[in-house]
Please model this.
Amino acid sequence: MNETGLQNLREHDYYELLAHLDEPEWPLRSVAPAIYQTSTFWSPDPDEFLEMATKPRHAAFYSRYGNPTIRSFENAVAGLEGADAALATASGMAAIVAAILTFAGQKKRVLAQSAIYGGTMGFLRNVAPRFGIDVDFFEQTDFANFAQALKPDTSLILLESPSNPLLRLTDISRIAAHAKANCEGVILVDSTISSPINQQPLSLGADLVMHSATKSLGGHSDITGGVLAGSSALITSVWQTSYLLGATLDPFAAWLALRGLRTLPMRVARHNQTAMEVAARLERSAKIRAVHYPGLPSHPQHDLAKRQMPNGSGGLLSFEVDGGLAAAETVMANLRIAHRSASFGSFSTLAVHPAAMWAGMMSEEQLKQSELPPGLIRLGVGFETPDAIASDIEAALERI
Model:
């Protein structure tokens, strides 16, 4: 679907977009897109071959540069996010790293939330300094802290909303407006938890939006991938770094991700409803200290959630168990429906104990700085009924 077609699409008609994306370009009028499982493409004409080799993001020269199947997935995500273009990568971390290395470097600064995905934090603290990248941090719910930390030479601002795993929100519109008035930095939002159905960061003033396609975009726990969406100029800039890093999504993984996207609106609606019901039920448990879910009226940023994520608060929630680290491990060991797994956005419910998992990514001091409660359990709801998921957790809580 071309840019004009995307603009004319009825507002929020994700189903039509995903059902008909790129149809005219599919060979032999196939209902499903082809898989271009090829490493390279050829041309009998030297001028055409030169153009293939030198045009940025050419989709039919060499699959590390671009690929028709990968491009179909990229176009779908760009359409969902209201972006000019998108760039698929081998993982969410590949997308983040490529963006950081593109827009930051010596004599440039990154400004990032202090509450951010553990892998991103690990790169910022442990790897970025090797490239001469200076990193500043701010508390995502404290606008004054952000304004103070922002500097004229800030070249990249990394946001994540909701944040993993405490489900705190960043006021994207407010931060974007202030940043654009005071620096020329690129604003990148990790919107993995919300999905494009629940949140549109580009419409809120962000320059780039990132998703770990491993999560709800793929939706079936069978791919690893990442994707960035934004203006054609910014996406081409990141591609210049990404293809040199070799951070390319495999064509078959792109085909699976595109296949998963077809049902994204339905799956997200189910996740929204299930997570809301489970969170509300867990909030009534005497053995749970706190439930973190933006959809709950008790969430301190509930009003922002309604404004920033109007379609729902997503399928991820977290809760703090009384008794700390040992109690959380007892609950994890006694879950029967929820599998212990590091991911979310899947068809089945997945749970993880972040303090135990992130210990391998961050030092003890960094864990303390992250303010990660030792008794916190993160839950990514699946397609099971809310009653089945909540009953499973309640039964595990009885073992404490």
User: Anything to note?
Assistant: The first strand starts at residue 85 and ends at 89. Residues 264-282 form the longest helix (19 residues). The chain has a mean pLDDT of 93. Residues 3-261 form a domain with the Aspartate Aminotransferase; domain 2 fold (CATH 3.40.640.10).
